[in-house]
Write a structure and sequence with these properties.
single chain, two-stranded antiparallel ribbon, 177 residues, 3 domains, alpha/beta, 6 helices, DNA polymerase, domain 1, four-stranded mixed beta sheet
């Protein structure tokens, strides 16, 4: 009788664990989707201002900062004497008062919801886009070098290995930068 009771308790605990996991998955879905709080197809809208993510590496320490106010970006630009506009996904590397502006890695960009620029990304960053692997990244770069910058993401449809379905997936994570 003790064995039977212990077995039914263990079974009940497993069923509860599965239920809790299912509830957590559902909660995650509602939080990450725009289902409950639609926001004009952008995950990172706050009071009408789009969040901009900038990575700053200085003295061996890398920090990721988010900005929702353009004035905050102006402070960063003046602090580092930058003339160009800062866009989401940029990385500032500061070494001995020299500032180099690059792009953060494709994986970081994707994880933050920052689109990857199809006209400027290298193979490694292109591979971070869902649906693009080694061969497709090389084909995109070769096409770009042969035909110039993409004028529309729809041009990707002309590359072997990219059909309508894959193009729809790529469009969610890419832009023309």
């Amino acid at each position: 009788m003790c064995k039977r009771t212990l077995k039914s308790i263990t079974s009940s605990d497993n069923n509860n664990s599965v239920l809790y996991l299912a509830l957590l998955c559902l909660l995650y879905f509602f939080i990450t989707s725009n289902y409950l709080f639609p926001s004009n197809n952008s995950k990172y809208k706050i009071d009408g201002n789009e969040k901009i993510f900038i990575e700053i590496s200085e003295d061996g320490i890398t920090t990721l900062r988010s900005f929702s106010n353009p004035d905050e970006l102006e402070v960063i630009k003046s602090r580092y004497s930058l003339s160009e506009d800062l866009k989401s996904g940029y990385s500032l590397v500061i070494n001995d008062n020299e500032v180099r502006v690059t792009r953060m890695s494709g994986r970081k960009s994707i994880s933050l919801g920052v689109p990857i620029g199809i006209n400027s990304a290298g193979a490694q960053n292109l591979k971070a886009i869902p649906g693009i692997g080694d061969e497709l990244a090389v084909r995109i770069i070769n096409y770009r070098e042969a035909n110039g910058k993409f004028k529309s993401l729809d041009e990707l449809d002309g590359i072997e290995g990219i059909g309508r379905k894959k193009l729809a997936v790529i469009k969610k994570s890419a832009n023309l930068d």
